[in-house]
């Protein structure tokens, strides 16, 4: 059975702006079978995209915490993938924590995969593995089992089952990964490094202070001062050493928040470091510390949301291509864990499915044009995690699409959020653009006026294949 999408505007590979296109899909295989520029007559089942809307490749979010099993009350596969598909995200990659067990062994990966399948998922889901002290022998088996790469923490993660690593742990892990005979492995870092950790000043990666609190823990500035940019620049120094030491591996910094790290990154790339990529998050590009009220812990995350001047540096880096792509780092928890002040509440921002309108509402990013903005949220991430079947409207790829109205205004309300715990710093914002419909494998998966129409997501488990 086939269906044809007829779009007056579509984002196609090699085109600098949306162009008219006619796209044919085999719904039995879920693959794109034909792409023609221009609007052509089509017989049979036809989806006509309205003149004011744009056909996009399905979006990808490679930094999501779904927390199931073990902490499903924080999120879960059902609610998380529902939120994703509502925002045009047809594929997400789940982080190795905060689930119990963490994705640090093949058995733990299988447990997580079973939980996803048993729950039912609305979009496609892949998995990251984790590097923790002592699990270097588990890494190659995890790659062969289908993880997309590995995440580690250079500062305590905030959960006991996922401890941080030291340089000697990373050496063991990298030496193990060098022996892998498949595609080049990817190692990702939560890049905060406390060089004075023995003084117990800065706490863990969720911002739980180990030492004496400042006088006003209700003020965001107190929390911000406890997470200085020097933690990120120190981490970058170590990561650049590893890049040079292990040129056969790929390295990646997750959720960069410090604009002061950009000059060192720029210099390293100019000197020939080619195996390091960087992401940032929607909250670092759209929110500023000066606007955060006392005790508004929905804004708390680590690294922290920084100043407006810093935000502008990150926006410039996205526009200039120094930052490779943008993710949500959707890291939810229960309302109880967000209670209290900035120094005691759990750290993490919830925003899964809101990414494209958030970016499109930023004038500096919008000047890139829709094609490049979509690449930040789709094609660039597909390339990074080797999702060769995703990220473009092209013959042979999965027929994953989002239909986007770039001019429609949308107010973010709690009732409109589809993730489990409806706490988000974006509530109350009015954004430019709305995802009208999302298709997975050529089949309607979400309609903005009707909600989720099916749960037909699949696990992405081929990362270990050549």
UniProtKB/TrEMBL annotation:
Catalysis: reaction(s): (S)-allantoin + H2O = allantoate + H(+)
Pfam families tied to this protein: Amidohydro_1
Subunit structure: Homotetramer.
Catalytic activity, EC: 3.5.2.5
Protein name according to UniProt: allantoinase
Keywords: Hydrolase, Metal-binding, Zinc
Keyword Nucleus: no
Cellular component terms per the entry's GO annotation: cytoplasm
Cofactors demanded by this protein: Zn(2+)
Stretches assigned to the Amidohydrolase-related domain: 54-444
Organism expressing this protein natively: Trichosporon asahii var. asahii (strain ATCC 90039 / CBS 2479 / JCM 2466 / KCTC 7840 / NBRC 103889/ NCYC 2677 / UAMH 7654) (Yeast)
GO molecular function: allantoinase activity; cobalt ion binding; zinc ion binding
Statement: the UniProt record of this protein carries the keyword Zinc: yes
Family: Belongs to the metallo-dependent hydrolases superfamily. Allantoinase family.
Pathway stated in the Swiss-Prot or TrEMBL entry: Nitrogen metabolism; (S)-allantoin degradation; allantoate from (S)-allantoin: step 1/1
Entry-linked SUPFAM superfamilies: Composite domain of metallo-dependent hydrolases (SSF51338), Metallo-dependent hydrolases (SSF51556)
PANTHER family in the cross-refs: ALLANTOINASE
A GO biological-process term: allantoin catabolic process
């Amino acid at each position: 059975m086939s269906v044809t999408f007829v779009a007056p505007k579509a984002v196609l590979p090699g085109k600098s702006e949306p162009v008219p296109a006619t796209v044919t899909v085999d719904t039995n295989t879920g693959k794109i079978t034909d792409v023609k520029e221009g609007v052509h007559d089509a017989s049979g089942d036809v989806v006509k995209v309205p003149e004011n809307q744009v056909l996009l490749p399905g979006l990808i979010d490679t930094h999501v915490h779904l927390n199931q099993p073990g902490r499903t009350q924080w999120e879960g596969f059902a609610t998380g993938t529902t939120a994703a598909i509502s925002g045009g995200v047809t594929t997400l990659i789940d982080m190795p924590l905060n689930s119990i067990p963490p994705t640090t062994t093949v058995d733990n990966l299988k447990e997580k995969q079973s939980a996803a399948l048993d729950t039912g998922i609305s979009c496609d889901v892949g998995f990251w593995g984790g590097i923790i002290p002592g699990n270097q022998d588990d890494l190659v088996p995890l790659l062969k089992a289908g993880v997309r790469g590995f995440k580690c923490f250079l500062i305590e993660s905030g959960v006991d089952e996922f401890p941080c690593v030291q340089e000697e742990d990373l050496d063991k892990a990298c030496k193990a990964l060098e022996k892998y005979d498949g595609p080049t492995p990817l190692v990702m870092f939560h890049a905060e490094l406390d060089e004075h950790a023995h003084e117990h000043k800065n706490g863990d990666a969720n911002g739980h202070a180990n030492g004496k609190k400042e006088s006003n823990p209700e003020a965001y500035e107190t929390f911000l001062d406890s997470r200085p940019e020097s933690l990120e620049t120190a981490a970058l120094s170590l990561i650049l050493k590893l890049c040079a030491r292990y040129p056969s591996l790929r390295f990646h910094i997750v959720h960069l928040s410090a604009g002061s790290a950009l000059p060192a990154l720029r210099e390293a790339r100019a000197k020939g470091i080619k195996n390091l990529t960087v992401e940032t998050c929607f909250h670092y590009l759209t929110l500023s510390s000066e606007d955060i009220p006392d005790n508004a812990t929905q804004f708390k995350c680590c690294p922290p949301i920084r100043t407006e001047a810093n935000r502008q540096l990150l926006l410039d880096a996205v526009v200039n291509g120094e930052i490779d792509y943008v993710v949500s780092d959707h890291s939810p928890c229960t309302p109880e864990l967000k209670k209290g002040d900035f120094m005691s509440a759990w750290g993490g921002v919830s925003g899964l499915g809101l990414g494209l309108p958030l970016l499109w509402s930023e004038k500096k990013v919008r000047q890139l044009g829709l094609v490049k903005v979509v690449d930040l949220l789709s094609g660039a991430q597909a390339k990074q995690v080797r999702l060769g079947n995703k990220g473009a409207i092209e013959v042979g790829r999965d027929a994953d699409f989002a239909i986007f109205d770039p001019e429609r205004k949308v107010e973010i309300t709690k009732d409109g959020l589809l993730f489990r715990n409806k706490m988000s710093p974006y509530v109350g914002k009015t954004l430019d653009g709305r995802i009208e419909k999302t298709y997975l494998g050529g089949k309607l998966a979400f309609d903005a006026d009707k909600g989720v129409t099916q749960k037909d997501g699949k696990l992405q488990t081929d990362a270990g294949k050549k």
